[in-house]
Design a protein that fits this description.
alpha/beta; five-stranded mixed beta sheet; 22% strand; elongated; nine-stranded mixed beta sheet; 601 residues
Length: 601
């Protein structure tokens, strides 16, 4: 998208003539009108108008209308962003309007868009990017380093505040809210010596002459996505997606996606100051990155060179390296401790059945974390009780060589049948420790449990035995995958699969949990099963995006795969799918990144 402005702030936009109208295609041939959602500020309207005009030039037969939606961040212009919720506070209302069908496209400043997309939404295009640097606007007309002693500097960004103090440790940082024109007016007053703003917004409004210094990437790393617009739609094959994607600019898109992937990989909590900017030159990518401790200490700024072809994968390693480096710096600087609680004060959201969520709460309690329960599942008896009883009768008569349980939820069915009838009639195999404990507590021995406590791990353990032609009864839930039965069949076993319980999603989420998520207060989320991923995603709707920045935890590989399919980052995968195993993995993650020695598991 090539935009040309007349240098004024009235939002007039003209288009470069190199753009040709698009021929109609099946994806949008029936579309005659699309509604573009935008915030109501002068800058937001400029940006939305630029996108509308760029689309209108390309799609002459489609009418594009603007519709103003006022998000929470615009309605409350005085509270700190950390108070009203910093994740998606400017984007969530537009995303909800997309989900509700009120609008067809949403135009965002990319840095305002959380890295987790609500289910059903997608960013269709990152158009051509404006200057990504931060800029100083000062009533003194001088750069940051030349401001008077003990300057008062306005910004609402912790990232900017940390980097300002690295350059001017004598500065006082004052929270600065309001639209760009409001903040510029405040910059003229005697209340501030300078304010820090995005150069892109000033340029789009024609106010470059107010800038007294452009802050270079090697000293002042911008927010991921700064200077770029994001056009969000409902997921393909929505016709708006096909239309909006015409504005995607390949190199701008790759740069922004790299920066956002860096941010997604952090999982450090809701207050961590993070910056990233990627520049592409041929087949090389230069990535400027910054990270600081939650309290603003231990600032780390680095430059990385990546290969363009592998950069989206490599950026995960970059993020991990910086998080570990920050932890080491904290420890060396004395911020860490040999007796420490890495999860102390963290807000943890746990999912699963009420019973499992409660057991997780108990396991987290010694770590001094604040745990919120979000029951996502209820367990019911199997839907085919006659079939289940018939299968267990056969097992009690010695018809099967093996009985396989992949979840402790199957144990009540054995209890109801009569565990004593199975003694000596069938060998028992389980996937993990929790199921083994439940089976043994019910009085039945466990003959096989794999070292790698996953479905594939159990199949691999069976393959080491002489199981060719052996018969096996697999008791599974109604939503369980076919991994174990199919794997055992491939190993040459005669497999009978029977439903032993049902997992039903819980439709509603407690009000206090939704509020905590909406306000961006969740630091860590534990997903207990693939179904909990689907259920919590549906429960939260547009508020799912507010989990961006939190550490997301998978209870095993199957859950990890479900999270990845749902577009969620996976920061921790518990090697042991038990409450204490999950807590230990979370403590290790935060301890490594905080410079603490983890305790409390």
């Amino acid at each position: 998208m090539a935009l040309e402005t007349d240098g004024t702030c009235d939002g007039k936009v003209t288009m470069a003539t190199r753009v040709s109208p698009q021929r109609r295609s099946p994806e949008w041939s029936a579309v005659s009108r699309l509604v573009i959602g935008t915030r109501g500020s002068a800058l937001a309207l400029w940006q939305a108008s630029a996108v509308r005009d760029a689309l209108q030039v390309r799609f002459l037969d489609v009418t594009f209308d603007l519709h103003v939606i006022r998000p929470e961040g615009d309605l409350d212009k005085t509270s700190s962003l950390l108070t009203i919720g910093g994740r998606g506070v400017f984007a969530s209302a537009l995303q909800q309007a997309l989900l509700d069908g009120e609008i067809d496209l949403a135009v965002h400043s990319t840095k305002d868009v959380p890295t987790i997309e609500p289910a059903g939404l997608v960013i269709a295009a990152f158009p051509e990017r404006e200057d990504a640097r931060d800029a100083v606007v000062s009533r003194h007309g001088v750069p940051l380093a030349q401001l008077p002693d003990f300057p008062v500097i306005g910004t609402s960004s912790r990232r900017r505040a940390v980097q300002v103090l690295a350059i001017r440790p004598d500065a006082s940082i004052v929270d600065l809210r309001g639209n760009i024109d409001t903040r510029l007016r405040k910059a003229k007053s005697g209340e501030y010596d300078a304010v820090i703003l995005a150069a892109a917004g000033l340029a789009r409004m024609g106010w470059q002459n107010r800038i007294t210094e452009y802050l270079p990437f090697d000293r002042f790393v911008p927010s991921p996505g700064q200077g770029a617009l994001a056009i969000e739609t409902r997921a393909d094959p929505d016709p708006a997606f096909a239309i909006a994607s015409a504005l995607d600019q390949t190199e701008a898109s790759l740069s922004v996606r790299l920066e956002r992937e860096f941010l997604r990989s952090m999982g450090g909590g809701c207050t961590t100051p993070i910056g990233a900017h990627a520049a592409i030159t041929g087949e090389r990518v230069t990535l400027w990155a910054m990270l600081a401790a939650d309290d603003g200490s231990s600032l780390d700024q680095r430059v990385f060179t990546l290969d363009r072809a592998t950069a989206l994968d490599d950026v995960h390693d970059v993020a991990s390296e910086m998080m570990k480096g920050l932890g080491a710096n904290n420890a060396n600087a004395g911020h860490g401790s040999t007796i420490a609680w890495p999860l102390a004060g963290k807000h943890v959201l746990v999912t699963g059945t009420r019973r499992f969520a409660a057991s997780l709460e108990t396991a987290f309690r010694p770590s001094h974390a604040d745990v919120l329960l979000a029951p996502t599942l209820e367990i019911l008896p199997g839907s085919q009780p006659a079939e289940l009883r018939a299968a267990l009768e056969r097992a009690a008569s010695g018809a099967f060589d093996w009985l396989v349980l992949t979840s402790q939820q199957s144990v009540p069915a054995l209890t109801a049948f009569g565990v004593e009838r199975l003694h000596g009639q069938v060998r028992v195999a389980v996937v993990g420790t929790s199921t083994a404990q439940a089976v043994r507590a019910d009085g039945l021995p466990v003959d096989l449990m794999p070292e790698v406590q996953t479905g594939p791990g159990l199949v691999a353990a069976f393959r080491k035995l002489d199981v060719q032609g052996k018969s096996v009864l697999c008791l599974l839930g109604n939503t369980a995958s076919d991994t174990v039965p199919a794997g055992l069949a491939e190993a040459g076993m005669k497999v009978t699969r029977v439903e032993s319980y049902q997992s039903r999603p819980i439709d509603t989420i407690p009000d206090e949990v939704r509020e905590a998520v909406h306000l961006g207060r969740i630091d860590l989320v534990v997903f207990a099963s693939p179904l909990t991923v689907t259920t919590l995603t549906e429960q939260l709707g547009a508020d799912l995006a507010a989990l961006s920045g939190a550490c997301l935890v998978a209870m095993g590989a199957t859950t990890r795969h479900a999270m990845e399919r749902a577009g969620l980052p996976v920061h921790v995968e518990s090697p042991e799918p038990t409450p204490h195993g999950i807590v230990a993995a979370c403590i290790a993650w935060f301890a490594e990144r905080s410079g603490m020695e983890g305790h409390g598991a």
